[in-house]
Amino acid sequence: MYQVVKLYGNVEPWWFLDGWKDDIIMTKEFDDYYSALKFYTEEWMKLFQSKQRFKSKGRGMSTFWDKQDYLWCEECADYLQQYHSLAILLDWQALPKSG
């Protein structure tokens, strides 16, 4: 099963740090890759049109941000950039590099 997830938080999606699922703001599941890719592409275009900057890494992982979108972090005593991210996953894992 494929998942397309939208995340909002202070870490890009490709890091998969502990608790990364806490940043998920939307999940949509698909039985096949091409349906997931179509939805991912539609959501990617929406974010691309509304955000100042973006970066993609790996297969099906992108993050978008505006320079003024940051939150204060008490623990690190600094402001952290906030990212709107999008990812296609296969059974909640990054897509394999081939296949």
Summarize the structure in words.
This is DUF1033 family protein. It comes from Streptococcus cuniculipharyngis. Pfam families: DUF1033. InterPro entries: DUF1033. The chain is of the alpha+beta class and 99 residues long. The protein has one domain. The protein is 18% helix and 42% strand. The protein has 1 helix and 8 strands; from the N terminus they run E-E-H-E-E-E-E-E-E. The strands form 2 sheets. Strands 1, 2, 3, 4, 7 and 8 form a 6-stranded antiparallel sheet that branches. A two-stranded antiparallel sheet has the order 5-6. The chain is globular. The mean pLDDT is 93.
Summarize the structure.
This is DUF1033 family protein. The chain contains 1 helix and 8 strands.
Beta strands, count: 8
From N to C, what is the helix and strand string? Answer: EEHEEEEEE
- Mean pLDDT, to the nearest integer, reads 93
Q: Give helix % range.
A: 10-25%
Shape: globular
Give the terminus-to-terminus CA distance.
15 Å
Bin the strand percentage: 35-45%
Residue stretches low in confidence (pLDDT < 50, at least 5 long) are: none
Kindly provide the radius of gyration, computed on alpha-carbon positions and rounded to a whole number of angstroms: 14 Å
Task: Please give the count of helices.
Answer: 1
**What is the subunit arrangement here?**
single chain
InterPro entries: DUF1033
Protein name: DUF1033 family protein
